[in-house]
Amino acid sequence: MDPSGYIDDETIIKRLIYKEKPDMRSLAQKCIELEKTDYSKVHASERDENIRTLHEELNSLEHMTEKQAVLHEMFVSEQDFHKKKQEELRKDIENCAKEIEGMKEELEMEKNVRANLLEYEAYAKNINTMPRCEETMELIEKVDEQHAEVCKIMEMKNEKLREVEMRCKNIVESIKDMIKEVEESVGSF
Asked: Which UniProt keywords apply (predicted)?
């Protein structure tokens, strides 16, 4: 204890811890002894000393009981506090687990979106390497023109072929006629 009358925390703790605790059994025995005592035969100073000692022990017991009640209340409130904290933590853990599951689903969705985007970009890159629509239409028109020319040439060739075929038929017919005439003239000799 310092001179200003202030009791430091360490001293209070030591007093609370090391203060002699009254024994209920010895206190009960003292009460029984005092009850049996014949006060007419006991000297006043001895009687006062016994009463003072009993009074101190009762005060000490009362103080200890109050301290135990305070400790009990503190323990119960601390226990309630920890139960509430434990429940809050359990709820927080459940919420975090739900959030994690939601984030996993979002991640999978984002992965799918990313994969689709990469696939789209690959298609777009492939499409961009192809000629433009106008160029394609021009090429188609050229091919159509070439096709028309080829068809025209084929028609002309087919016409010539038919003419040649007709000539060949005529020649074959003429040759047949000539062979007949030769056979007839040889046969008439």
From this structure: Coiled coil, Nucleus
